[in-house]
């Protein structure tokens, strides 16, 4: 009888073990202490505890899921197109401003420096603005700053007023950078999407010099770029369309939604901002983006003047060479985004920077106009994905609640780099000539490579 009982007991114990899946889903509230002991530390949550709270927000959204994200992504792309035109315009405006206002290179270079003031201001107000008005408020404020600045520039005011108006564009750029980069970078396949986002920026930066050069060959009125350069199209009108697009697409993203997603014990947004800015990931990648943006905009901003003064190119040919640089940058962002995400940002950025250094040396040593134009375009291709990759790495290393402030801070300081270094080149060009562009660009690429190799070691702590 005892033997029969043992056989029956073994049969009952073996039946639950036959399908492995149910074992993995056994509730942690099981009453058998011997069964719980070996898996208490490593088991997954049971079904009840795995249910998210009602206020939880998924961090794995796709560009098309939920469906409204499709409209949001497209509106961000268009806003970055306008943003790119805004950044591509000053370099082409340098000769026009110098002639119209009769100013030297060092004074005209203030148009590169003044947006930094607005952008740094945006980096410290972005978190609070999100808390109060959400991304809807950020969209309206950022594009609204563009519109106000462009309306002022249509009146071709005195040059000091032009410099002050460009502070507004820097403020708008800083807000858009932090908000749209952090949102797009947090989506599934964020590396590819960031490549597209910054590709539209590159498309805008390509379009602006072409439009301005056409204006310069017909009339001397540089302000037509902001007023009406074809039919009724102008950058002011495009900024208005961007305002409507991004504001309406993020209409339901209000301050209350931001509080739910970024709930923290911090008593105020400013304290949270300062706390986040103290971590090494934010500071190190911010320094890297300062150097990158400095090299990108320094080359794009002074290339037209360099090709005319040093390579003896005509205004039209030099303008095409400048557009070639921006076309290369845009092509790199659209074409290399998937490859960068597949291989990995750490490896590919190293490859991109080594290529940029080699091409920059060829640009410097090649004295022919055609060689310089080709090298400039290839430099654009090789550096196109560096900025999106840096942002993507930041979103991978930091938790979601830190994305907005950290990415906003990093990209804001990137804009400061895009202001300081072109200004420095302008000051040096006044004393030593525009040929200083090449050693400065080479030094910036070398500094980026050294800093990226440090980042790639994987020892940064949040």
UniProtKB/TrEMBL annotation:
Membrane topology term: Multi-pass membrane protein
Keywords, alphabetical: Membrane, Transmembrane, Transmembrane helix, Transport
Record's keyword annotation contains Membrane: yes
Organism this protein belongs to: Hypocrea virens (strain Gv29-8 / FGSC 10586)
Domain Major facilitator superfamily (MFS) profile stretches: 282-462
Family to which this protein belongs: Belongs to the major facilitator superfamily.
Domain of life, per lineage: Eukaryota
One MF annotation (Gene Ontology) recorded for this entry: transmembrane transporter activity
Matching Pfam families: MFS_1
Segments traversing the membrane: 71-86, 106-125, 137-153, 159-180, 192-217, 229-251, 283-304, 324-340, 347-365, 371-391, 403-424, 436-455
Compartment annotation: Endomembrane system
Chief localisation class: membrane
GO CC aspect terms: endomembrane system; membrane
The protein's name: Major facilitator superfamily (MFS) profile domain-containing protein
């Amino acid at each position: 009888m005892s033997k029969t009982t043992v056989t029956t007991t073994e049969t009952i114990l073996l039946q639950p073990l036959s399908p492995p899946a149910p074992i993995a889903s056994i509730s942690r509230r099981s009453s058998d202490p011997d069964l719980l002991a070996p898996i208490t530390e490593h088991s997954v949550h049971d079904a009840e505890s795995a249910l998210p709270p009602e206020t939880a927000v998924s961090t794995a959204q796709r560009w098309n899921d939920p469906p409204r994200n499709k409209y949001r992504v497209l509106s961000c792309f268009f806003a970055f197109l306008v943003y790119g035109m805004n950044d591509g315009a000053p370099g082409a405006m340098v000769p026009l401003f110098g002639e119209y206002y009769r100013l030297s290179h060092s004074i005209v270079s203030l148009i590169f420096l003044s947006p930094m003031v607005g952008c740094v201001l945006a980096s410290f107000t972005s978190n609070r603005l999100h808390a109060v008005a959400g991304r809807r408020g950020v969209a309206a404020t950022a594009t609204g700053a563009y519109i106000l600045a462009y309306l002022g520039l249509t009146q071709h005011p005195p040059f000091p007023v032009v410099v002050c108006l460009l502070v507004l564009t820097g403020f708008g750029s800083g807000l858009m950078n932090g908000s749209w980069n952090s949102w797009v970078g947090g989506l599934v396949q964020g590396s590819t999407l960031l490549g597209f986002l910054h590709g539209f920026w590159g498309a805008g930066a390509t379009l602006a010099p072409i439009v301005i050069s056409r204006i310069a060959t017909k009339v001397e009125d540089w302000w037509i770029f902001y007023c009406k350069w074809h039919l009724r199209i102008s950058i002011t009108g495009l900024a208005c369309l961007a305002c409507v697009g991004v504001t309406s697409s993020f209409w339901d993203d209000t301050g209350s939604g931001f509080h739910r997603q970024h709930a923290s014990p911090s008593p105020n947004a400013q304290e949270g901002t300062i706390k986040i800015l103290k971590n090494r990931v934010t500071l190190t990648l911010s320094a890297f983006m300062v150097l990158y943006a400095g090299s990108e905009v320094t080359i794009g901003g002074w290339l037209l003047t360099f090709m005319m003064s040093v390579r003896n190119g005509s205004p039209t040919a030099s303008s095409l060479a400048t557009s070639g640089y921006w076309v290369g940058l845009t092509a790199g962002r659209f074409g290399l985004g998937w490859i960068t995400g597949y291989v990995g940002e750490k490896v590919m950025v190293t490859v991109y920077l080594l290529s940029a250094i080699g091409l920059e040396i060829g640009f410097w040593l090649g004295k022919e106009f055609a060689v310089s134009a080709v090298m400039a375009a290839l430099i654009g291709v090789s550096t196109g994905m560096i900025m999106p990759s840096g942002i993507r790495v930041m979103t991978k290393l930091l938790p979601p609640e830190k994305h907005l402030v950290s990415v906003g801070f990093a990209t804001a300081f990137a804009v400061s780099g895009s202001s300081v270094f072109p200004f420095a080149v302008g000051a040096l060009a006044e004393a030593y000539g525009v040929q200083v562009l090449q050693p400065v660009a080479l030094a910036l690429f070398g500094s980026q490579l050294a800093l990226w190799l440090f980042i790639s070691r994987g020892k940064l702590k949040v």
